[in-house]
Design goal:
The protein contains twelve helices and 15 strands. It is an alpha/beta fold and about 375 residues long. The relative contact order is 0.12.
């Protein structure tokens, strides 16, 4: 292992290169590249690399970037791309298609606010808009987790019990452009961790139909198979974590990550880098005698409902911090979680840091104080922290 001071964008590209080279004895590596702030430096680094049996195509749009990935993947190559915000929105048709084709593509997304008005700072709404697309979603807390999640994502996606694409998400600028010491594994360890890809339905010289017409019953069968693969991915995810530990000698986080949760009376739930700030606020609350705890959702699709129910059992107050908004409803994470706490629990939604506003420990303390004062849940609360 080597320790390198790199950004999360750089870490994502390094992981993609390592994964691509690991498939050199099979069908190689490829992807489509199109720039969009704040992920551009990831594909810039990727395009500068010489990858044995690999090729990155510089395309004219995000839609074409995913189309190129689908072509590479259907040919049996390991495929990668990166995007963000409006780029993901433009790519959406092919994002759905990649999952319907059951292609084990990995994409790194830098979470950025959808516009207009244009905003280049962090908001989770861009990737959460793709929550029904059939991709596995992983949300990262730091640069190391970005690198590790891409490597783990390929092993998970390529397992024949799964065969679904994986979306690895990181917060704009908070991670994408922030330098952190990151362990980079040697190629030989990645080779051992990622066996050559053997896609069972890859295109060969034998006739094969891709993207034909489904009649209603065929669509029902295909959707059921997709759901079964999502459910199977829970167990495969844990197997991949075990294999990762054996290969690289370090842990990669579980589907949900508790923090000082065992004896907590009040819990703050979050995703991405917000969880780091929640930890600081929990520690400060403990010093004040408040038994607070945190819960980070790392795996958003498939949604780890059973694990969340176990983690929140007996908790009387649960605050769900959303860095996103579904207009007319509230926070997306809250919408999926509000029925998972106990029947008598106060489950309150807080929209915080929308559009990239700083989320600081004092802001989380204010949320915690509001939650402790509540006797019942109320309408979603906007906590404006960007001023």
């Amino acid at each position: 292992m080597t320790q390198e001071l790199i950004s999360a964008n750089h870490a994502a590209a390094v992981a993609a290169v390592l994964a691509g080279r690991a498939n050199r004895k099979a069908r190689g590596f490829g992807g489509g590249a199109y720039p969009i702030t704040p992920q551009t430096e990831c594909i810039e680094y990727l395009c500068k690399q010489t990858i044995e049996k690999g090729h990155i195509i510089r395309v004219e749009s995000e839609h074409s970037a995913m189309a190129a990935c689908m072509g590479f993947s259907l040919a049996g190559a390991r495929a990668f791309t990166a995007s963000s915000s409006n780029g993901l929105a433009y790519m959406t048709e092919n994002v759905f298609a990649a999952a319907f084709y059951r292609l084990p593509i990995v994409m790194m997304a830098v979470n950025r606010t959808l516009g207009p008005p244009w905003n280049i700072w962090v908001d989770h709404g861009d990737t959460l808009a793709l929550r029904d697309a059939g991709w596995i979603h992983l949300y990262c807390e730091d640069n190391q987790e970005v690198l590790d999640s891409i490597l783990l994502g390929y092993r998970l996606a390529e397992d024949r019990r799964v065969l679904l694409p994986v979306l690895v998400c990181q917060d704009a600028f908070v991670l994408s452009h922030t330098m952190m010491m990151t362990e980079v594994p040697p190629q030989e360890r990645v080779d051992a961790f990622l066996p050559p890809l053997d896609l069972p339905h890859r295109v060969t010289d034998r006739p094969r139909t891709v993207g034909g017409l489904d009649f209603p019953h065929e669509s029902e069968v295909h959707r059921r198979q997709q759901q079964e693969a999502m459910q199977a991915s829970f167990a495969v995810f844990e197997e991949c974590r075990e294999a990762f530990r054996a290969a690289f000698g370090r842990e990669t986080p579980e589907a949900i990550v508790p923090y000082r949760l065992d004896d907590a009376d009040v819990v703050l739930v979050s995703m991405g880098t917000t969880a780091s700030t929640v930890k600081a606020a929990v520690d400060e609350a403990r010093l004040r005698g408040v038994r607070a705890g945190g819960l980070r959702i790392r795996l958003f699709r498939p949604f780890p409902e059973e694990a969340i129910v176990r983690a929140l059992a007996g908790k009387k107050r649960v605050g769900i911090l959303d860095r996103d908004l579904c207009p007319g409803l509230g926070g997306i994470l809250w919408a999926e979680m509000r029925a998972l706490a106990g029947r008598d629990a106060v489950v309150q939604n807080y929209m915080v840091g929308l559009g990239g506003g700083d989320i600081r420990p004092i802001h989380v303390r204010q949320i915690l104080d509001d939650l402790l004062a509540r006797e019942k849940s109320g309408a979603p609360v906007f906590k404006e922290v960007g001023a």
